[in-house]
Amino acid sequence: MLNHHPPLRVLLVDDETYMRAFVGRVMSMSINCALTEARDGEEAIAKCAVCDPELILLDINMPRVDGVQALREMRALRPDTPIVMLTSISEEAVVEECAAKGASYFIRKDVGADILKAELQDMLKLFFPAEKIAS
Prior knowledge:
Blueprint (H helix, E strand, L loop, with lengths): L7 E6 L3 H14 L2 E6 L2 H11 L3 E5 L7 H11 L5 E5 L4 H9 L4 E4 L4 H15 L2 H4 L2
Parallel strand pairs: 1-2, 1-3, 3-4, 4-5
Helix pairs in contact: 1-5, 2-3
């Protein structure tokens, strides 16, 4: 008998359209998910309150409200939701600040599709039961 689980509700936040498309495609290949997208931290905070995400994928460098500020505000709204920082930043101080503000995990986004897919799948295994992430 097949297990049928509702799609994982994912909030994907990145100011770059191509990166949202790329990460969204990789997520769709990895898990049954319902993606809600936001272009910056301000939009993400508003959508976070409405879409009830089970997972948040959050870029750091964005206009208006950056990922660090959005992380702080979304962590207050969603204290138990995994918030995964998507970044091409390697500055230790920024990573430490995000960790201190409640980031659950970090994934480098400046890698190829195969590496990003593997990183996303590893992250999913950490936060969700196997039957939820089985494709």
